[in-house]
């Protein structure tokens, strides 16, 4: 989450511009990095959606006789990525793992984003005591380093897929809240808002049709980057032993962590999920980066 | 300016109060008790009940909180349940370790990140620029523990160049007046010890510094690009100043404003990353301390330790904000 | 902001750093390559051994964790010792002992010519001082977390405090030094387990002078009820009679011991013994490979081949003395039905787990104690993996398949009897799912969550095991089943007959009679099935091949005195 937080601050330093949707898409398409990002993420999503059709075997059912008493046979013609410590096909587990990473990433960002946005827009638009109260609470949350906060929440809720999503999502709440509040405050004083106000447009209409659409662009960028952070944080939680409860769950972070003890006899078991994590995270980071450049008025007209 | 600082300091008060309540409630919400932690495999229900009683765990929550605040106000954080030593004493030993590691990581990322970002911006659109962009994106896309494991396996186990665990070889003994081992070995004038400490720092620092490195390089590049097109830089160039002087006096100097901010903002990242890096390298810092404490339900360490970390984190953020305000007059008025 | 003035400084710093990192290999006379350096040390050299965590306190009476005990074993000795590599009692600080006819008065001959590390003589008075110290523990020291072993073997203390959790009755009555080398211990009732139990480090004899001078029993109790030693006995001045003397302890970094040149027996070979904590198994192996350490305990089975394949390293076997089992809470439905318990026994593919996950270093267990222990029965009922039979039993029990069942496993732990609990769990869960069950996976960090849940009786099926503290059936099935435990559900669903057998066996002084009683208990246990034992494993230690003479003990407490390091 700390990376996400940094990105958020980075975004906040740059004033959000208005009316840039028209050519943002054009600039995004011209960005080779973003295109690579879309390809990687597209691949990731396709694999996740069609896992049952692509995977050669059931990811949870193994055959211990494949181990022949040792751990663990490496890549072969039948098993491209080898078999894991339970005699399961590693390739099938990697393919199904895309599902879990995507699910965890999307749900946890959805949690952080929705709660954060609600709190942020209340704070930003209502202001006053409510603003102070919400923002102080956010400050308290931000005063604990994000990963520690996530560990703390999982330790409290107990291990499990759902608890992990909540924990990772919770660490992102203050980021989105601050971000949205900041851009609403900035938009409120913008010329077009002042103009709308002066010609008597109602406040709610101003918020809904003028402020939010313009304040939302940094949130979209942040959301994409937060997906990347969420996948990494989940893997990290797996590393400190707080992964999904059912160990047969093909989740990349846990797969990596569980097999670091076989690093010397079967390095592929740790390295393959590691690479899968890097590729998916890289995809979201590339898209987020492209979106940022496309939506940032200051970078307009520059390579 | 003074008003700004005072206001920010006052804001610390509600944060600290909120934090102490949050930490207290969180600890009470953790499943399991130190009783079972202490007794381990040999726990019997009767023994667990006895320990609960002794620890005051059956008192009403508000009384427990009152007792907690009372001890905090005396700067007494109690004793660690597992080691039976004062929390403050352990903190004094663990904290310098993490700071030393964080500083080494920072040094690594700054010394590599700023020149890299600067060069990338100067050769904007060139091969180096693209390489550094790809590299920095990769840097923030690799889980830090994965990088640490790979680094350790390659450089320590396979190549045998560097040690795998700890802060210094157990065969070297020096005094530790500060618990900053680099400083301690300098104070002792023991170069062999210094070299040994540095060797133990390299791999964890590189692993921990990878993400700040990527971010610093990116921000430097963006900031230099920004500044380069400013009017005063064009003017300086038009005046016929040599490119190196323009770079030094105008470009880099002004680009350093966002860079310093970003550097300051890495604290949280370093503290988060330290948990994972320290656990890969069995490095006795704050990260491993808190992780062990969570596992063992070591309440006193958690209560004290998390508060310490949060206070340090809040103070560093405050310093960053203040220095940013100091550097950027536009913010001062707000 | 004079950044441009700082830059050159940064550059200088960078250069200095780079120079530090640069190659000066020839200067590395004693840097971090521990293996090279230790051999350079004069005399017997230095052995660096890695433990899994830092010791707690170096006072045997007050700890029960393995890492404290490992160090205490080096510094202190007990009246009764174990023959190296076995669980057989032999003379320690007592050269002989005898009991009166009803087994309540025990006379110990104390070894002569032994001195503590502080120069004080060991005599009967010093021995009785130690026993009286333990018996008179009060306040926080009566807490079961501090004095577990005393309470298991001797029960209560001189003063009874019902809040302490310690029992009221005590087996101990008095200790009297009738002359310089004779200590007479009087018990309140006969005990058959008393002599082997005295070999535990909880009954280490310490220097009375040091115990008093360094205030072993003083300490403060803070608001959290944590006892912290006020004196320095357990942290800086642990003074015993052992082959090694304490030098220094830097917390979480290293604990240094040196040879006791005045030792009464065979003196230690190495000059210095350093024990350092490395929590992670893989990290210990890596540190051994880089030479940062020269030995560690609890080698994981899959690493054994790697170590054996490396000519500079070696494996030392620890005799098997443990049992791994799947425990049942027989008070919870459907486990109260014997047919369901049998179905699980048939549904667990124990052979595959033992064959594939223990690198050929384990045997399938048929009962709750290893074959080495007297009372082991060869003719207990056995249960081969048979999914069809399991399904049939479940149907007979009137249940609809698949039968849902919660199965718990611990995380963050590696025990000698289950090196990778998660892996065992996954294989068992898969075989149960094939046998008419539907397993719900539940996990918790080993300590305290997992152990807490199990002992509170909230877990239906759970993975657990035990390493013997001393060589007696009482320490296995006695510990598990003699008194009711929520973990087995025996508090609400008692195994009356088996408990009676165990009670009788504990006070039976005739060895043959005891064996028969324990064998019968084992047969009944495997019919009743409060759980399914599945493995006795042979743990291993790894050392640099330069290290010779290490004798591993089944109870995991061995002296480093016999170890030598080759040049």
Task: Furnish the topology, listing elements before pairings.
The complex is a heterotrimer of chains A (303), B (334) and C (567).
Chain A: H1 2-13, H2 21-29, H3 32-49, H4 51-54, H5 90-126, H6 128-142, H7 146-157, H8 161-188, H9 191-198, H10 203-239, H11 252-259, H12 268-295
Helix pairs in contact in A: 1-8, 1-10, 2-12, 3-5, 3-12, 5-6, 5-8, 5-10, 5-12, 6-8, 7-8, 8-10, 9-10, 10-11, 10-12, 11-12
Chain B: H1 2-29, H2 34-39, H3 45-54, H4 61-73, H5 87-122, H6 127-141, H7 144-158, H8 181-187, H9 191-228, H10 231-238, H11 243-264, H12 266-280, H13 286-295, H14 299-327, H15 329-332
Helix pairs in contact in B: 1-4, 1-14, 5-6, 5-9, 5-12, 6-9, 7-9, 7-12, 8-9, 9-11, 9-12, 10-11, 11-14, 12-13, 13-14
Chain C: H1 3-21, H2 34-40, E1 46-51, H3 66-75, E2 77-78, E3 80-82, E4 89-91, E5 94-99, E6 105-110, H4 124-135, H5 148-154, E7 172-179, E8 182-187, H6 194-197, E9 204-205, H7 208-213, E10 219-221, E11 227-229, E12 244-250, E13 254-259, E14 272-277, H8 281-290, E15 295-296, H9 301-308, E16 313-317, E17 322-328, H10 338-347, H11 350-357, E18 362-364, H12 387-396, E19 403-411, H13 421-433, E20 437-445, H14 446-456, E21 461-467, H15 477-481, H16 496-507, H17 511-528, E22 531-537, E23 540-544, E24 547-548, E25 564-565
Parallel strand pairs in C: 1-14, 1-15, 19-20, 19-21
Antiparallel strand pairs in C: 2-9, 3-4, 5-6, 6-8, 7-8, 10-11, 12-13, 13-14, 15-23, 16-23, 17-21, 17-22, 18-22, 24-25
How would you describe this protein?
The complex is a heterotrimer of chains A (303), B (334) and C (567). With 303 residues, chain A is mainly α. Chain A is built from 12 helices and no strands. In chain A, helix 3 crosses helix 5 and helix 5 packs parallel to helix 8. With 334 residues, chain B is mainly α. Helices cover 77% and strands 0% of the residues of chain B. Chain B is globular and about 85 Å long. Chain B starts with a helix and ends with a helix. Chain C is built from 17 helices and 25 strands. Chain C has a 7-stranded mixed β-sheet, with helices on both faces. In chain C, strand 12 and strand 13 form a beta hairpin. The N terminus of chain C is likely disordered. Chains in contact: A-B, A-C, B-C. At the B-C interface, helix 2, helix 3, helix 5, helix 7 and helix 9 of B face helix 1, helix 2, strand 11, strand 14 and helix 8 of C.
